[in-house]
């Protein structure tokens, strides 16, 4: 992930939704653990590629959001993959600290379970 | 994953978007490989939980879609996790055959890359 102005192959193929967003799955490279899903627009993807840290677009705050800005729990980008439909990203990272604001490593810490009484 | 009518803890907490959909990341349980992202509505999630195979909602065809129906490349569900915002699912599966219609194991087989000339 070089910090320069070189064009990025594949970026022009990406399809954004009607809000200009594309979902980005974040996975820890070393463990394979899926950490979170967030959304990027063109600008946050460009910043992610330029800086080697994840930037997202907050749908609730309607602004760019540098992951770990306040917590220090940044994500160092190893690579960005995209899917066969070019409408989803898979960002493989090294997670500093934990990914979830709850303090859990991954945002996916709860399971849908059949009730005990069934 | 039992095939009965027992209530599922957590299902009522889930948040669907304004189209009634929730994104579902599919990950191979054994390898940790992220295979695909697709969308579920309430009905496709219910069928997934009931049958132990993944069912999605096709946004283009506007219909329920049993994964692997024609190809035989079904996904046997090990567990369904949901995230801290309850607006994304992580479905861990055993993939029969390959996940992608291109014949690749994962839909994420391409990488955004800096151009060679840079």
Keywords:
homodimer, about 120 residues, mainly beta, Ubiquitin-like (UB roll), 4-stranded mixed β-sheet, two-stranded antiparallel sheet, 9 strands, about 10% helix, globular
Description:
2 copies of one chain form a homodimer. In chain A, 8% of the residues lie in helices and 36% in strands. Chain A has 118 residues and is mainly beta. Chain A has a domain of 76 residues: Phosphoribosyl-AMP cyclohydrolase (Ubiquitin-like (UB roll)), CATH 3.10.20. The first copy, chain A, has a 4-stranded mixed β-sheet, covered by helices on one side. A two-stranded antiparallel sheet of chain A has the order 4-5. Chain A is globular. The interface between A and B is large, with 43 and 43 residues.
Short description:
Two copies of one chain form a homodimer. Chain A is mostly beta strands. Chain A has a domain at 20-95: Ubiquitin-like (UB roll).
CATH topology of the domain at 20-95 in chain A: Ubiquitin-like (UB roll)
> Kindly state the mean pLDDT of chain A as a whole number?
92
Give me the CATH superfamily of the domain at 20-95 in chain A: Phosphoribosyl-AMP cyclohydrolase
The H/E string of chain A reads: EEEHEEEEEE
Taking pLDDT < 50 over at least 5 consecutive residues as the criterion, the unreliable ranges of chain A are none
The greatest interface here is: A-B, 43 and 43 residues
Characterize the quaternary organization of these chains: homodimer
Number of helices of chain A: 1
Report the strand count of chain A.
9
Distance between the termini of chain A: 51 Å
Name given to the CATH architecture of the domain at 20-95 in chain A: Roll
Q: What percent of residues of chain A adopt helix (DSSP H or I)?
A: under 10%
What share of the residues of chain A does DSSP label as strand, in percent? 35-45%
